[in-house]
Input
Amino acid sequence: MASKAMAKAMTITYKLGTALYINITNRCTNRCVFCVRTTAAGVADGLNLWLEREPTVTEVLRDIQQWDTAGLSEFVFCGYGEPLARADATIDICRELKKSYAVPIRVNTNGQANLLYEQDITPLLAGLVDAVSISMNAKNAQEYQAICLSEFGEKAYASMLEFAGKCKQYIPVVVLTVVDIMPPADIRACREIARQVGVDFRVRKLVD
Output
């Protein structure tokens, strides 16, 4: 189990199925209307992922070490925030995980990191991140902004798609995702956009 000392203060890591999830920040450039952190008491069995503070890289790695990783299918950076809001920490953690575990690493992201840092960070993920899941959520910029409320406004949508395209050069698996509450016609439109970008596409449940 996760360390008792850290669990009393905050949940840094948690397990869903055969994946170990890593929760490193509550910061996010979006305020999605359907986000689980505003629509539910918690994930899984009500697990609260609000952090009292952002854990250090050392704390994250120590927390991971408390788990039995035998049979683990992947590490997933996903919690109550945007992991790439802490890109340096994400990269440092990935680098250490690659040294110690033969387990794939996935990052769930809103794809706005290049806007946030005003530079292309995708080359920094090469050899460290095995898969990236990018929340697409809409078929155009106007609808995206209406439901995701990005601090970058409507330009966030084009930047997100561009981020997905750049990730293809460095990350083996790149997936654009939408939630299953979208109308079928919108889902088809998003699937076509993903095809044009040249990445995979997945429809996810409203609460994963």
About this structure: The domain at 4-204 is CATH 3.20.20.70 (TIM Barrel).
